[in-house]
Amino acid sequence: MRVDAFDFELPQELIALRPAVPRDAARMLHVKGGVIEDRMVLELPDLLDEHDVLVFNDTRVIPAQLEGRRGEAKVGVTLHKREGLRQWWAFVRNAKRVRDGDTVEFGGGVEATALRRGDDGAVLFEFLGDEPVELLLERAGTMPLPPYIASKRGTDERDREDYQTMFAKEDGAVAAPTASLHFTDRLVEAIDAKGIGRETLTLHVGAGTFLPVKADDTADHKMHSEWGRIDAATAERLNAAREKGGRLIAVGTTALRLIESAADEDGVIQPFEGDTDIFITPGYRFRAVGGLMTNFHLPKSTLFMLVSALMGLDTMKAAYAHAIAERYRFYSYGDSSLLIP
């Protein structure tokens, strides 16, 4: 499909720079089939059935934004995918100043050596020393806010909490699974009280999720890969829920992409551990997911393509037009939507 088919005009003032307080006070656009209605995140339990299962991503965002120096040159580094115990691929600002073999100093005794470049221009760094890389990043890094927020304000201490979900457990993401940012203890209690199931999987969201689609046709776009895991016990419970007639409601596009990567042709979810570069566009046949809770996405992005595949492009264009007219807040810190085909 033509990438231009997924374009729309978004007023810049609708880009949320901070989350709702409390988190579950955000608005939620409920789209079921072709019916669109305005709801609140706190109403989520009322919109699901007791046999449904919400599937969350328990990845934890690491302080993956680094500012360093190679000699006199300033170098900005955003880690985006782990390669080994001490090695990370990174997008580099001022990359021409960094050659293979150069060491970049990030302050606080944190250093990394550039090993080589990838086909996409990213640089593979190896962090020096014996301390775990996670500790080094806590000392030298900052939270990697999405570019559409970072371009409007600086990162601060509030973001260390705001840009982390209540389910965050497994270190490795450089972007939050933002649909889960809306959840609070009281919302989870209401979900449990109704008998709606909850499961978690892990997909480490990479900075590639923010890369623009530069191709004119979706068939020519190369999707970034991300590492994910669904263990055998979780896969078994998800399959059992579907056999009982429950729907799997993915909380976020990351959870959806991993479930669909793990599902076989018959819709049975298999244990999964490894990279996925699944690219979901209209025409895709969904194997296991029965619904999606997600924030509002960028024009011409792979994520808007994904929701259009789930609901239909015309339905999503109408839903987004309604959201813009009603002044919903967009993107990572913005409002939510519940999409049921």
User: Helical segment tally?
Assistant: 8
CATH homologous superfamily classification of the largest domain: QueA-like
What's the architecture of the largest domain, going by CATH?
3-Layer(aba) Sandwich
Strand proportion, as a percent range, falls in 25-35%
The separation of the N and C termini measures: 21 Å
Order of helices and strands: EEEEEEEEEEHHHEHEEHEHEEHHE
Q: Give the total of domains.
A: 2
Strand order of the largest sheet: 2-1-17-16-14-3-12-13-15
Helix content: 10-25%
Average pLDDT over all residues: 94
Poorly predicted sequence stretches spanning 5 or more consecutive residues: none
CATH fold description of the largest domain: QueA-like
The CATH top-level class label of the largest domain = Alpha Beta
Question: Would you tell me the structural class of the helices and strands?
Answer: alpha/beta
Number of strands: 17
Family: Belongs to the QueA family.
Subcellular location: Cytoplasm
Organism: Sphingomicrobium clamense
GO molecular function, one term: S-adenosylmethionine:tRNA ribosyltransferase-isomerase activity
